[in-house]
Amino acid sequence: MIRVVLVDDEALVRAGVRAILDSDPEIEVVGEAGDGRTAIDVVRAHRPDVVLMDIRMPALDGIAATGEIVRAVPGTGVLILTTFSDDHYIAAALELGASGFLLKTGDPRELLAAVHAVKAGGAYLSPNVAKRVISAYGTTRPGSRASRAMAAKNRVEGLSDRELEVLSLIGAGLSNAEIAERLHVVEGTVKAYASALFKHLGVRNRVEVAIIAHHADLVDESP
Fold it and tell me: Which residues form the signal peptide (predicted)?
């Protein structure tokens, strides 16, 4: 069972998201919060697998709350619920350890897929969201798009063909289990590759790995 906490200051939004999650028998909503400060207490009390986190909220915004949750309950993954006007928050959420991003206007099936992916240790970047995340993240970093691409390609130099393959699949948002199935290996092998990639690339989470994969043109972004 995947245990989830919902965080949004709009009760109607929480009700809608809960209805979608309740349609999946493998997901259980164990708590809700209407602001970031309360969310931290709820997460500490329930220690869920996944938090669905709104950004703009009273008392404490979702970005600050994400940082607190990642530090206090490191086993919990945080999925950020964004709108089209929230792009400038994305870099901050990445820096604080968010595990993925969802558009509030997205397909309900994507919400379920994202929750499962994060529970399985993945970072969720759907094709639609990924382009926005990469773009928003890039605007906060110095240099042109070409220079960032060159920097990413330099960082992946020295990786084996298999490591590059794993990197591209992480960039596509696949979990360790999904990558293992795709490559016909055991999940422990994928975890070992992922740990090696973290060390080689000097990153802290799978979203940062995914960003490097996208900048290095290792991910197929076609529809």
Answer: none
